Amino acid sequence: MNAIKDSVHDWIPLDPVAADLLDTEAFQRLRHIKQLSTVRLVYPSASHTRFEHSLGVYHLAGQALESLGVEGARARAVRAAALLHDVGHGPYGHQTEEVIRRHTGTDHDEIGDLLYETELAGVLERHDIDPDRVAALVRGEGDLGQVVSGELDVDRMDYLVRDAHHTGVPYGTIDHGRLVRELRSRDGRLVLAEGNVQTAESLLLARALMDGVVYRHHVSRIAGAMLERACERLLDAGTPVAEFRRMADHDLLVALREEVPDLGARIERRDLYKRAVWTGLDRVPDAVTELSREDERRAARDIADEADVDRERVVVDVPSLPKLKESRTRVVVNGVVRRLEGASELVGALRATRRAQWRLGVYAPAAEQDAVAEAARDVLGLPDNDRFYSRTPKPAVMTDTTGWSA
Fold first, then answer.
1. What is the rounded CA–CA span in Å between residue 259 and residue 271?
2. In the 8-state DSSP scheme, what is residue 325?
3. Which one of 15, 61, 266, 284 is most buried, by most CB atoms within 10 A?
4. Number of helices and strands (H, E) in the chain?
């Protein structure tokens, strides 16, 4: 049996299915998609790829299946799904996922068509594995689909540990060995066995800390918002979305440098926009928190017009409201299966912390930062306060945002 040396899990043995899937062009493409996309502009050592993460997920899935006592054809299908769970990602991973969704209506975990469009389906069928079954598992369907995509999935277990390892921060460290050993199946749902409330809490805490320190770092947020704007312009200029979604990271950078040079060059050189507005949930009208991407673009144009700057030099970034998917993790407490949110006082505190960390961002070049900050307060109906990155704040004029809000 082949084995691959991994920086997190040491040696990862490959079954014959995995060995053949690794050799496909579709899977090798993941070597050229960085796991943390624009986060590496903050943490230079975060250069790991979707390729190695997928191997880690495959490895942990195998351990989880052993703990659950799943063998044979069912286990081979789950391991294949774990290995292929990210094969549908576009360049820069999650940073371009929303762009692709708007143009195709599909997410990265909807890989059914991709399996048949590439050699992947043929490899699976040669090993008597149904490609449709693998696609369903990647979507998280069924009790074993939860191993790949669910509240207790091995995807989350690997990326937290791997991202912490490569960024050098300690916050994503979890006992993934205990997590996979304590998995049980109850009534078609994955649960953690008795005595593991703290084990589940550690996963929740690690994700919350990594969100604040790594995944939602303001530099990564700015770069990601600029990248999304640049990708929209690239597609508007005629690049087919089918070609776009199969690019690797370096392909996208080359295309942006040629077709959208103002933003493409800035992203490549890390010459990023600055925060004209950066403020918390308690200072933002409800209508603004509900803006769609189209509404964000409209708001950015209104801000640019009021500030008398080029419309392409203002970006409005409204993140989704904070959620704690991991709080729905099921744990056995005194013989009864309960959701973690009902068994742990820590969940409430983390929810409050996540809401306190939420930030609305409006970004612009440094030279236009002040003008954009003032215009953003007017257009978005935001109060004047010291949390805005404007060096010459002036009183805001509260305006009605219903003309372009969701």
1. 18
2. G
3. 61
4. 21, 9
